[in-house]
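User: Is it possible to get a 3D structure for a protein together with its bound compound? The compound here is glutamine. I've pasted both below.
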Amino acid sequence: MNYRQLTSALVPLYGRGEAQAIARIVYEEVFGLSLADVLLGRDEQLTLDERSKLENIASQLLKGTPVQHVLGYADFCGHRFCVGPDVLIPRPETERLVELCVDFCRRRMSCRVLDLGTGSGCIAVALALALPAAHVVGVDVSAAALRVARDNASRLCGGGVAFLHHDMLRVAALVAALRGVSAAAGSPCGGVAPAFDVIVSNPPYIRRSEAASMHANVVDHEPHIALFVPDDDALLFYRAIAATAAACLAPGGIVAVEVNASLAGATAALFSDMGFPARVVKDVFGRERFVVASQGHDDAHEAAHAAQDGAAAHLPQGVLAQQHAACGHEAREQYAQAQPPDGVE
Ligand code: GLN
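Assistant: Yes, that's possible. Here is the predicted structure of the complex:
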């Protein structure tokens, strides 16, 4: 099997643009062969061992296993995160959420950050790495996800993130538990009332009914607990986040969340109604993907504007395509639309 054959085999499952991106990732990451190498025919010169490895990878990909699960990692904000079936694969559009928090925190001496539903820990760890003076706490209901998050944190930032095993929907108990974390860690909540300058979250937000339009490699391989919400209560996690903010957000702090693009206005309204004036921020693909809320302060607006000004600054579409193929039904759709024509199949 060569590059062209791998791509063609993947086309029925993924479409041409994404099949090419996946094949490129495999050749680049597993065999160290760039597209230029492929054009020079080096994909035809694999050893026997390499060939059997490729057959094995191809058979996993053809069963719909995401390329990130085959490799065991995904890149996010310039860092390599271990991923597996217990965590959501980091999505390219979520990098903007991190940028938004970083822009906000950079203007402060120190920053206490709470990441609700941390999953692989990608947001928490990326923030800890970008903001060395920050105190970051990641919370997740899944013990298996927290194992992945802890592993990523210890590998990438020397364990510089505190993790808490808790259900973010049980707000009163969570707030009480956060006091414990602060007391134990000597920060970020001061031991009396937890106080965070930033509460960030990429909670589950896809309505169950939307699953029908999603790609099998998301629905069959990623944790439903991280993806889906009931149709009749699609904003339940945001209600819990706003209630947590009511108890834990420091004066002048912000809440920054990723949202379902078709519910962005409703999510912003929920925060505004709960006393946190909010605005919607678009993602790198121009979709209404984030909501930034504050305590009636200009910071949310500043942060939202800063994020909007930075749109597309960091992520050329080609890089998105190469590094983030096959992750997320919306990213996939958007990637397919953004993909420039490519001479190599
Ligand atoms: N955006 C992700 C997807 O496209 C879903 C992330 C989430 O539910 N928080 O699959």
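The pocket of glutamine is lined by residues 91, 202-206, 218, 227, 258, 328-331 (CB under 6 Å). Residues 86-309 form a domain with the Rossmann fold fold (CATH 3.40.50.150).
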